[in-house]
Amino acid sequence: MQKESLKKAFLAILACATIGVIYYDVTYNDHQSNNKQRTSNLIDKIDKIKKTSNQQKQIKPSMQKGVMNKPAMQKGIRNKPAMQKGIRNKPAMQKGIMNHKNNRNDQIAGIGSIVIDLGLYPYIKKNIPGSPAEKSGLSTGDKILTIDGLKTNELSIKEVFSAIRGNVGTIVELKVEKQNGEILLVSIERA
After folding, report:
1. Which of 15, 96, 98, 116 meets the CB 3.0–4.6 Å disulfide criterion with 125?
2. Backbone angles phi, psi at 4, to 5 degrees
3. With a cut of 70, which residues of the chain have pLDDT below it?
4. How far apart are CA 163 and CA 150, in angstroms?
5. Would you say residue 85 lies in a domain?
6. Which of 47, 62, 79 is where one domain is finished?
């Protein structure tokens, strides 16, 4: 009699555990699909805001006719004039010294992705075709967890941009969470 009671209790516990696992799996899958839908909706809203903003910019008339808010250029001058000493305590520039922007190693570059801030983490919104980000396997909706070991949920969006950008040819390591929950550590060469 006692063996049958134990057998019934064991079967009841096994049935409850099975139901619990099934309930957890269904709840987890619903949660994941809700997160994907919410992320997609937020990206769509941001796109609409940007389109509206761009349309408003096109409507505003230019303040200066034909100038497009650019400073006047002087013909024949290729180098900037020497700076005067005493302005912001910087030494005068000398003509003939190579501008740092002409040196490829000193140029600042990124990974070729549009990154947006959605709540606690930044996400990949879009990759530029043929960019290092696209070649490394990053895709729309990927959550950026860390940049070179820095936790992105502790950084402002400007700090995220600064951490991703760097000198051309240098490597940045991103830890990303794919939409399927897979976590990857990706090394990308800035270009």
Report:
1. 116
2. -70, -35
3. 1, 26, 29, 31, 53-105
4. 9
5. no
6. 47
Note whether 112 and 180 are same-domain residues: yes
- For the record, the structure tokens of 6 come out as 């134990």
**Cα–Cα distance between 104 and 108 in angstroms, integer?**
9
What pLDDT, on a 0 to 100 scale, did the predictor assign at position 96?
Answer: 39
Backbone angles phi, psi at 6, to 5 degrees: -65, -40
Range of the structural domain that residue 20 is part of: 1-47
Residue 127 CB contacts under 8 Å (≥ 6 apart), including other chains: 112, 113, 114, 133, 134, 138, 139, 140
The total number of structural domains in the chain stands at 2
What CATH number has the domain bearing residue 122?
Answer: 2.30.42.10
Is residue 25 in a domain? yes
pLDDT at 10: 78
- Under DSSP, the state recorded for 92 is P
Residue 178 burial by CB count (10 A; 0-12/13-18/19+): exposed, middle or buried? middle
Cβ distance 162 to 130 under 8 Å? no
At 67-113, the pLDDT tens digits run 454 554 544 444 444 444 444 444 444 443 334 444 555 788 999 99
Q: Is residue 5 part of a domain?
A: yes
pLDDT the model gives residue 21: 72
